[in-house]
Fold Porin.
Amino acid sequence: MMRTQASLWMVFLSALIVTNALADDESVETRMRKLEQRLQELEQHNRQLQRALPPAESPESDTPPDSSGSPAGAVLPDIARDSRQKKQAPLSFGTSGSGTMIYAKPFVNAPKAFVGGYFDLQYRNHRKDVIDNGAGAAGSNPGIGSTNSSFDQQRFVPFIYADITEHVKFASELEIEHGIREGTETEVSLEFAHVDYLIHEPINLRAGIILLPVGKFNLLHDSPLNDLTDRPLVNQLIIPTTMSEAGAGFYGTFYPGRSGKMDYEFYVTQGPNGYQPDGTARIGEASGLKNSRQRKSLTDDGFDNNRGKAVVGRVAYSPVLGVEIAGSGYHGTYDPESKRSLSIFVLDWTLQRGPFELIGEAAWAYVKNNSRNLDGSPAIDPDTGRLRPQRMNGYYIQGNYHFMPEMLRRMLPRRFSEGSTLTAVVRWDKIDTNRDAIGGFGDLEQLSLGLNFRPIEDTVFKVSYQFGMRAFNPNTSQRIHDDAVVVSAATYF
């Protein structure tokens, strides 16, 4: 700007000299008017040039982005440092004003948050009427209260992530299930919301509503991430995904050996709740452990139902790139007197080699004294007429093959680019939610065959066929054989 003003004055002086030399016969007043007009034209031209130039960069703009503290190794823009400037007043309760006080937030002057999420839509067509549509008395007659096919906008899940400083991170996820419904039928909950304080790679602190590290699938369950529409049976009933609780703890990464890597998480959390307010048990053969989650607890404001807390942790070891095996555990009391415990032990694995991938998870659960109500009477499961279960187990094993025929890329290069992928999937599921009895409604087996297309990694279109050799109809409380075609679309945004 100084140089611009100096240039203007040079032009002004030059014009003055030239005018004096060439127009001696003009009056001084005429010459001054011409010079003033010329100077105004130059100033107007200078303002136009200033508007056309890009804004000046801050002194910190030459600093390369720091993604070392980004969650899951994600590359984030350069906002990891505390971006508040010296001119900004410190946060204070002394902020004055009325209507403007809502803007007295640090992120108004220095925005740090990222908003994203994912969405999915599915269509399923079953051989039997296993979908409860609420249109009548469920199971009273075929087609009344149940159906065999339906569209379902299963999940709309917004994310909010933020780098507050280089060492302070925030992450949250709001889950909206079956969002087309109104009122109490719409399921809305905070899936997780926590603040992290990064100390060093081997140890970092976390506090808030935490996604529990009980197996790997509970941590990586997003619809666009997985290659089949339905979650594994073990992650529907024994590790009821999503499983999250309020609590605090720490996590980190070590590097044993030259190529090995070890990750861990450990938290103390609120714990489960396995009883109704009237003292009757809630954990059943048909529902598994779903109703013991904190998000399903009937206590006021989601408070703990006893004096005990739960402990949960996972340790994952990767000897080489593409191979990981992990063990995790969860233990907490689920009754108001803190005398009955729920324990879950999980083994998960991931093996990747070229386009092939083999993943899976096995879980064992023990619900101490779940066969008794709080008053000591037998806890009869209304779905089965038998005592409620104490022992459960299950597993899934899944193989993926990622490929893309070169012929498709040549024929339709705009549809099948270098980032496009086809994936063939096969998965075997087997669970038993009542190991204390032979057979039962919770003894389930399912084979799934699928094929999906990803135009880019963030978006997937899936189709699968499920062979339900051992299935359960929740509308009639009957064991059935049921096959299904499932088609879905999911995307991050």
About this structure: Confidence is low (pLDDT under 50) at residues 21-25, 55-86. Residues 108-492 form a domain with the Porin fold (CATH 2.40.160.10). The longest strand covers residues 149-163.
